[in-house]
Design a protein that fits this description.
The chain is an alpha+beta fold. Among the domains are: 2-99, no CATH class; 229-343 and 360-374 and 482-518, Nucleotidyltransferase, domain 5 (2-Layer Sandwich), CATH 3.30.420; 387-473. Helix content is 41%, strand content 24%. The protein has helices spanning 49-60, 71-94, 126-137, 140-145, 151-166, 171-180, 184-188, 196-208, 210-225, 294-303, 323-332, 385-415, 425-439, 465-472, 488-496, 498-510, 522-548, 555-562, 590-599, and strands at residues 2-9, 15-27, 30-40, 112-124, 231-240, 252-253, 264-273, 278-285, 313-316, 335-339, 356-359, 366-373, 378-384, 445-452, 455-463, 476-481, 566-574, 578-585, 609-614. Helix 3 (126-137) crosses helix 5 and helix 6 packs across helix 8 (196-208). The longest helix has 31 residues, at 385-415.
Length: 624
């Protein structure tokens, strides 16, 4: 083998240099040269080309070198040898009718040198196989074809989603993972060239069509899993950015769910059904008012009215459940179960009967309930032991703040009776304001500063009704609904199903790469979020199958179990002077078998490929 430099001309008179790996062969028509591999443009000096060609040939022939090679040359040679080996295996596989052997393969025997056996080019295929199988079941290719995606765009889109599910990261990191670690390219049988800009463009294209794609995925899930979709859970979350996001129209500073108030945010709204299958999503500004997001969601649900029953109940938390939004839900013809924004009710509103108590699913905590029905709504007063325990910890922190706030007020008050202490009324008011800002409990106190001739003479303070109500409300909340047909336990169960959408957000943030989001401009930022949402559409189907089969692993555990299912190339030298390359998958472990069985997919995602070639290429006399 040797390397040849070729100057290629393109339209417009421009030219570029390309280097080719060439081998000389004997043919019935005489000696000929054929291109083994196009190497692009090499950065090596010409005097090293022959060394590189010999090193490539050595790797292909599975021969050990006597002398150490230049690390740069050896790395390039391994890379090119791997490409050549893969191309030869693919060509050998194409010669088999149907792409794979039908039925049991015939036995093949060879005399091999077991000391020459090496295993290389290992690529993970386990989690990728699961993700791609679920996408195929949803008919993801047909969905994108219906939206005029090209074959290459479909391949990039699927790689992007598989990458987000198996190895979440930036587009650049996804390209590295697809090229060096993952066998997703073999599973998809795609020959597209991988580079980050192609994935960027695919992400944007998916976002531009996200409403139609989500609608079709929701429809396929409904048909495959016979979903009832009688309960719609709606909530919002936000995700933060480490950068400044200057000039962004969606990234805004606001209170983060992770208490990162120093970072710009964007907000994601999501609706899921009672089974956890996502229906639709939308990205809002980071400082969006939660109640103002509901109308868009209701409009989206209305578009789907013809697909399934209108008898749906929308479940929301207190942040969205304003009186205006409740009226909007009624006008749309839906039912609702929401957390009441009203914090206090008259004591006579609730019945004198004892609380009804139920045991929650954890088998450890109980929930006390009192139910009141009016002509239009039902109200359920709930007292949760778990919520009380959580709020009691918060209460201890609050009590410490209150104690320090009162001590600071008392110190200012005592100073009014001592000489050489500040007594100016405006200054005292300013100092009290600073204490309120520092301890953030001033709203729980009624504070009165008395003055005479512009000088403060006394400070009186006591806890107000808001503080008393907050203490009495520890562990309690009120649910309201227009589902008058439900019992108190059924109302509570619907509300507790909100944990499903909270779990969805947790999965997207922790397992599907919702963050970190490295993009600087709005379009790729939003596109990144929607790729994660599409990945969750696929994941919901996988988790549903496993839960139905009694397997309750989370996605991170499934990925770890499948991580050791890999595809490798085994190379060995034969007694008759040839090299055999075999590309196959490792046998799945018992747990991998279980997951594949429950998902009803193949245990071996790809068939075996093998090729036998001479250890040394027969050179023609011209090369000699």
């Amino acid at each position: 083998m040797f390397i040849r430099e070729k100057i290629k001309k393109v339209n417009g008179g421009k030219s570029y240099i390309q280097h080719q790996l060439i081998e000389s062969i004997r043919t019935p028509s005489g000696p000929r040269q054929q291109i083994v591999l196009n190497l692009g443009q090499l950065s090596l000096p010409e005097e090293k080309w022959k060394t590189l060609a010999n090193c490539i040939e050595g790797f292909l022939a599975n021969q050990k070198t006597l002398f150490p090679q230049d690390p740069e040359i050896e790395a390039k040679a391994r890379h090119y040898a791997s490409q050549i080996r893969q191309e030869r295996l693919d060509r050998a596989q194409e010669r088999i009718t149907g792409g794979e052997s039908a039925g049991e393969e015939p036995a093949q025997y060879e005399h091999v040198n077991i000391n020459s056996l090496i295993t290389n080019d290992a690529k993970t295929v386990g989690a990728e196989h699961v993700a791609i199988s679920q996408m195929n079941e949803y008919g993801f290719d047909k969905i994108l074809q219906g939206l005029d995606f090209t074959d290459d765009q479909i391949a990039y889109s699927k790689m992007l989603i598989v990458g987000r599910m198996v190895h979440p990261g930036s587009e650049r990191d996804t390209v590295r993972w697809l090229s060096e670690t993952s066998g997703a390219g073999e599973l998809l049988d795609s020959g597209v060239k991988l580079y980050d800009k192609a994935l960027h463009r695919a992400a944007v294209l998916l976002w531009e069509n996200h409403a139609a794609i989500e609608q079709e995925l929701s429809k396929r899930a409904r048909e495959i899993f016979s979903l009832k979709e009688t309960v719609i859970l709606y909530d919002l979350t936000n995700t933060y950015f480490e950068g400044s996001k200057r000039g962004s129209k969606v990234a805004r500073r606001y209170k983060s769910k992770e208490s990162r108030n120093d970072c710009p945010l964007i907000t994601l709204s999501l609706t899921v059904d009672e089974e956890g299958f996502p229906k639709q999503s939308k990205v809002f500004e980071g400082n969006v008012s939660e109640p103002g997001t509901l109308k868009d969601i209701l409009d989206g649900l209305k578009k789907e009215d013809g697909m399934f029953s209108n008898d749906r109940t929308i479940v929301m938390d207190a942040g969205i459940a304003t009186e205006e939004n409740i009226a909007l839900i009624r006008k749309s013809g839906y039912k609702y179960v929401v957390v009441s924004r009203k914090k206090s009710f008259e004591d006579t509103f609730w019945p004198e009967t004892d609380e009804e108590k139920i045991m929650l699913s954890d088998g450890k905590t109980t929930l006390g309930m009192k139910l009141v029905r009016t002509e239009e709504e039902a109200f359920l007063l709930c007292h949760s032991e778990a919520k009380e325990a959580k709020e009691s910890k918060e209460k201890s922190i609050l009590s410490l703040k209150e104690q320090r706030f009162e001590e600071a007020l008392s110190a200012i008050k005592e100073g009014l009776e001592k000489p050489k202490r500040q007594k100016k009324y405006d200054t005292i008011i300013e100092r009290i304001g600073r204490l309120k800002e520092r301890y953030k409990v001033g709203n729980l106190y009624t504070i009165k500063v008395e003055q005479t001739d512009g000088k403060a003479t006394d400070i009186k303070f006591k806890k107000n009704a808001q503080a008393q109500a907050k203490e009495e409300a520890i562990g309690t909340y009120v649910l309201r609904t227009n589902r008058l047909d439900l019992s108190g336990e059924e109302i509570s169960k619907l509300h507790r199903s909100l944990s499903t959408v909270e779990e969805s957000f947790k999965t997207m943030k922790g397992n599907l790469g919702l963050r970190p989001n490295f993009h600087h401009t709005d379009t790729p930022t939003i596109a990144h979020v929607h790729v994660t949402v599409l990945a969750y559409h696929i994941l919901a189907g996988i988790l549903k199958k496993l839960r139905t089969a009694g397997v309750h692993y989370n996605w991170n555990t499934i990925r770890n179990i499948l991580a050791t299912h890999i595809r490798v190339t085994t190379t060995m030298n034969t007694k008759d002077g040839c090299v055999i390359d075999v590309r196959t998958c490792t046998a799945p472990t018992e747990k991998q078998h279980t997951i594949y069985n429950k998902l009803q997919i193949k245990h071996t995602p790809l068939g075996r490929k093998n090729i036998k070639s001479p250890m040394k290429t027969q050179r023609c006399s011209a090369e000699k």
